[in-house]
Model the fold of this input.
Amino acid sequence: MTPPPSRPRKRSATRSVTLSDVAAAAGVSAQTVSRVVRDPLSVSDATCAKVRAAIAATGYVPNLAASNLASNRSRTVAVIVPQFNASVFADTVHAFSTALARHGYQIFVGTTDYRPEHEEEVLRSFLGRRPDGVLMIGTDHTPGTRALLGGAGVPVVETWGWSDDPLDLLVGFSNAAAASAMVAHLAERGRRRITFAGRHTSGDPRAAERLDGYTKAVGELLGADPRTVDAGPEPVTMDTGVALLDLVLERYPDSDAVMFSSDVFAAGALQACVRRGIDVPGTLALAGFGDFELARHLVPSLTTVAVPGSLIGELGAELLLTRMRGGDVEAPHRDVGHRVVARESS
Done:
């Protein structure tokens, strides 16, 4: 009598799936599985798909800790941003993460809440996890932060600003020039009493640069003194935009244009004008900064400054990848520029 076929032995619940198990399931070598995990672009699409299917079927989780110890590389990159709430930086972080993921890198993100001393604390914590690179928003840092980055021995890319003395790699633009360009646009539309509204917090040098650009431009183009209102510590919300509008109408009731430091502020103010029957742009032109998606959907649509946030993330990833792989970067400082997007509100 022929014995029944034996069933496959069940894997012990305490035994982890190994790289060899995945290789056997995919019908490839263990080295190929390792390459898919570490650098998927180095493997053909067909092989990569086969290995990933085997990884999913077996429940394999790579032992990155052991790999990191062996290679002295963590396959991670630290990202430090001021905030995420209604953040103009979201497109940059998303594009940066997507570009790195294609090469087997993951990011971990920390926020500073626009506090320079907290940026130093977050960076110190992240460097303890030994990232292979760092992306930072802005070019203005405390001496402690600069010392930490200088001693870390990893490539650093600064973004969303411009500096004549960058730490290392730089992908950004001049916030002052962007604000000056908006003043020029409003002046071309016949506006002569332009007020700047935003947060003038000490922890946001980019906002300070925009204010400087506005101040210089109204002096040179209009021969006028600056008119500014400050949101103080209030959050970047549409409600704060309404409060800023109220301050403008109280302090500078003859204003014929308001430049906001964020599209979020400008959107709140614009909606308040619609509710109150203030003619935009007839009585009051409004402009923002960032070119958020909502800017083109408002009625009237919002004039703003567009910055290529996704491109900043893509270029930042490209430069870091080259340096993390030991390559030379031919153009380490990239100016992505800005663009005034004229819409119905001006």
About this structure: The chain is about 45% helix and 15% strand.
